[in-house]
User: Fold this.
Amino acid sequence: MKSKKLVILGSTGSIGKSTLEVIQAHPGRFDVVALAAHSNVDLLIKQYEIFKPEHLCLVNENKEQQLREQLKDKKVNILIGEKELLQLVKLDDVDIVVNAIVGASGLKASLETVSKGKVLALANKESLVCGGALFPPLVKKYGAKILPIDSEHSAIWQVLTCGKENEIKRLIITASGGPFRNLPFEKFSTIDVNQALHHPTWSMGPKITIDSATMVNKGLEIIEASVLFSIPTEKIKVVIHPQSIVHSMVEFIDSSIIAQLSRPDMKLPITYALFWPARVLSDFGELKFEQYTELTFEPPDIKKFRALKIAYEVAEQSGTAPAIFNAANEVAVQGFLDSAINFLKITDIIEDTLGKIKVVSQPNLDDILDADKQARNWAKKLLKG
Ligand code: NAD
Ligand code: MG
Assistant:
């Protein structure tokens, strides 16, 4: 069987590493053509030694010397910087681009991938949140495909094989509720970084872990689902499911609800995307029902997790509003991780920024990038008080 040629953007992160584990678990099925990362030279070199890609890209220009020095005897094409990263998705003969970059920095690579008519295996939800309406026409025009890696979207994608588009009543996205589901709101101002980085069911990169604690992540995911599955957000419901076993559900017009279940391990949705349209034998762990004797569901508390309510409003508003929401959040999360602001301030900054930056209703890419920049500048001012 011909191996699939892959480019992995963000290979040193949580999803990037899990993707490489999936590849290692299936010898001979994938050929890693290129790896890209932001700054982690040591890990990128380790990955190079194992997967021997033809191309390596490092976005952080300050680390160029270190990378070149350590690979000076090797036959590998080294690319440096954000613009160069885009060259990787244009390479001929690449079957799948895995976008596991964190944040809006992944947007251009996603747009470039679909504009080359390639298959985009997408973890970088911020691409769809910010780029929104830009994606569907490009996918259509260039015959590209976007395959979701986000577990909820993978679940919905798998379940949608059970019915036709006009038979969907609504999508039901599950959320673990994060570490503060049971914490009284009065205590939210005391939450510290370590507590917020301790997710009860998933092990992920720092940004998405904080997003899960504020429920901004679920907000980003309703927008992501709306773009991916061309469905208005009023038909997307969020339900809290603390065990993270049911990854999402689809309710069809006959009122049947179909769900996808598995252990909370990103290697499962990654495997599904990489092998799609086939399913393959994998040993990433069986779901043991003895360990999960209770699967519970409850509505989200939007008074405690205001960001989710704001996300619905932003989705409704559309245009550049989701990009503003996302940019303000990225700045605020970094501020929280740097201990510059408290936990509650993350949502305050998002709200304040949305009130400040003018929304463009039918944006092109420049409008989106401009909204992102304006929102970041304003949010940075708010960080300083
Ligand atoms: P992470 O922080 O662990 O890794 C991010 C990766 O992106 C790193 O390899 C880093 O070098 C790279 N990167 C950062 N900035 C970059 C830039 N400007 N240009 C190029 N590369 C850059 O993040 P993660 O948890 O792996 O998340 C990645 C994406 O996947 C996010 O969009 C996240 O929302 C999504 N996602 C993650 C999980 C998860 O379990 N981790 C689950 C669902 C979705
Ligand atoms: Mg998710």
Remarks:
- The first strand starts at residue 4 and ends at 9.
- The pocket of magnesium ion (ligand 2) is lined by residues 150-152, 221 (CB under 6 Å).
- The mean pLDDT is 97.
- The first helix runs from residue 14 to 24.
